[in-house]
Amino acid sequence: MEKVQFDHREPIGSSTYPPPNDVPVRQIISALFNNAVNPLPKSTLYIHIPFCNEICSFCGFNKAVSSEPVKERYVNALIEEIARYGRKRYVQSLDIQAVYFGGGTPNALSADQLLRILHAMNHHLPIARDAEITAEGIVQNFDDERSEALKEGGVNRISAGIQTFDRKIRETHLHMRNGADELLRGIEKMRSHFGNINLDMIYNLPGQTDEIWAEDMRLVLQTGVQHLTVYPLVLLENTIFYADYVKNKKFAAPDEVREIEMYRHALDAIAGSPFTNRYSVRDWAKPGLDCRYIRMNAESNHILALGAGSHGYLAGATYRTIRSTVKYMEFIEQNPDELPLDGVRLSTDQERMQRYAVMGLRMRDLDLAPFETRFGARFLDVFEKQVGEMIASGYLTLDGDRLHFTDMGDIWANNVRTHFEGRIGKTVGYTDTVSIGEDGKTHYSKVTRIKASGDVEANV
User: Fold this and answer.
1) Which of 139, 274, 363, 370 sits 20 to 30 Å CA-CA off 223?
2) pLDDT surpassing 70 at residue 320
3) Entry pTM
4) Domain of 230, in residue numbers
5) Within a domain: residue 315?
């Protein structure tokens, strides 16, 4: 079998596959939701809140700093969208076992607004009694009032982006206005309300020396939280970092060798810590506390996605909600009972099988047995060439009906996932995030390429 050597490390993998088409087909998907037989009732729910206190330099997701009247208008539109999906027979047939409030910064909303959304969600949608419900946010906004509102609405897991504890990097490069002392106090406040907390960390940031990264890992490992996500800096088009790195050449291009070295430093730091459950290529948890939302999406279950710019997967179709917050609100207000969809892709059988591989290989250990039950074919027959190449190249091993990443495969895991995609799309996230490399997934091959676009993403 031919060996494959990847040219550049992909820093992040696709979060939705196959990507929706750009041509809207609202009528088709609305009919599908009403009439389709549902062979896979297990589902997750994603709700997007596109508001932030500050715009972080690295973030390519759908977000903006907005006024209180805009937030209130959006909350009302979102609650109406929840009700519209809740009236679909197909949606009511789902078993929603995990919910994720992402952004943006969901806790940029008020306690009252968060609680109203949660009440609408629980009233209109089939949320399982024991569902895992996660809300993202920034540390300082998990205050007593918001935390109590979240808990009253059923939230039992929270996630906060730390990225780094270094004050200078946070203020200078990330537009985050607090340092280690404030963050650690805020995390203690979070722990007083919630018993299941994730923190995100980023390596290879500008100015992040080996000593700073070692201190970042030391501090995060002593916080007492239950879950940890670690990922490299991803240079995305239409972000502040895109302008800083590429257009204005403010920083030297990211160094791939150093990125891999810092990744290995993280592995060494986490080894021997309480985070013994490394279940995905970038996620660690204490025993029994892996994220159900991550795991269920990796199993290629349904994703009901709501809110401006969200991406979902229902009835064998991937779909994209209108991205512009203004246009999303206008659509909801002006089109009674229609769904605010901007693009849909009715997946072929081959694409659904590819989705199983692409989504599943976020896990370090992929169970192949359910594939045959779902598709009537053996995974190793459908993907014989790809599996053979990845094993021959030293990225994967096969043990019975399970594929495992090797230590080298961990480093190149996102490239391995793309190897199963067939290069259909360039997106690397739910909200059409595109890295600045030539293929849209890396930032090493063409770091000097300048796209004719605005420096910072517009949300209108």
Assistant:
1) 363
2) yes
3) 0.90
4) 26-298
5) no
